Amino acid sequence: MVLLPSILKNESQRHPLLVLQSSLAQSSLPILASILAQEPSVKGSTRHNLLFCLLYQPSSLTQAAASTEVHDWTDRIPGYGQSDYSDELLSIVENALAVPSQATTVIIDSIDTLLEDRESLSEAYKTLARVCEAVKKHPDARLVLHAHAPSRLLPLITQTGFSSALAHITVHPPALLTHLAAEFLMPPPPLSPAPKFWGVFIPVSERVHDTESLVFGPGGEGSGGAGEFVAEVVVREGGAGRKRGVERVLEGWATALGCPCELMELESIQPFAKRHTEHIPSAAPDPTQNLPFNLSLTSSQQESRAQVPLPYAHEGVPITSNAPGAIFYDPDSADDIDDDDPDEDLDI
């Protein structure tokens, strides 16, 4: 079952915070465009999107619905006019959340640009924390943060202190899975055991520069690729009365269709998935087949075998747990066992 559709729609309001993580090797803007293109009404309430563009132009998200309120702040550069827009951002969010029957999605693109504009890690974190607290007070609102790895803000906003419930989507190029299958013989589950795969995948994927070299280095296909990418989905449940835990899965995204899919449906996964299937050994043949005699026992033969007394010297003697250790030995007819000194005939 694919988790991405339910996470993006947030039908059960279980994930008030959604973090989209991009890199130079792979962009998560198609997922962001899918969120903006959702239906304008949900469960009888109107949907309202607040999009704050700090890095990308609004035209790069051409599928934005009419219910989206766009704030293009890409021209707010430190040193050139007003650059501290924290209070203004929070005021716009609070005004939108003041409508109780309105499902509001607040989208900030990107938090790394916010950090550069604020010129302070603590101040940028405080701004995001204030917005997140305002969103969590609304029963039908969510905060979507777009980040680029490596990012100094990502380790902070993914902590439970920022939000106990979290949906974190990190996009990867398919070349990363191809590299793991070829160099480490570790294709993604279910083609390999999940614990072993994650033990290899997580440290390799966290080396962002190595992933970029797979895409832009010699033999790489460059950004865009085959029009599909891999989404690493980490879901953390939180809140009172809910089962807390962390779930991590890999899913696919077909850019041409603009929707998620099963990982095994990606075209880039098919080659090594097919090779893995071909190398799966068939079931071992039964050595008892096609024999001129029968090696199995019937039920009557098994009963007779169970009634045969075993020739143990201690048979019939109960052995308790506190009994001392002993060796039971049945002397052979050729054994010469006596208490005499075997060397008494020697003149020593």
From TrEMBL:
The keyword tRNA processing applies. This is Elongator complex protein 5. GO terms for cellular component: cytosol; elongator holoenzyme complex; nucleus. Residues 321-348 are annotated as: Disordered. It is found in: Cytoplasm; Nucleus. Residues 332-348 have a biased composition (Acidic residues). Keywords: Cytoplasm, Nucleus, tRNA processing. GO terms for biological process: tRNA wobble uridine modification. GO terms for molecular function: tRNA binding. Pfam families: Elong_Iki1 (PF10483). Transmembrane segments: none annotated. InterPro entries: Elp5, P-loop_NTPase. Gene3D superfamilies: P-loop containing nucleotide triphosphate hydrolases (3.40.50.300). Belongs to the ELP5 family. Signal peptide: none annotated. Pathway: tRNA modification; 5-methoxycarbonylmethyl-2-thiouridine-tRNA biosynthesis.
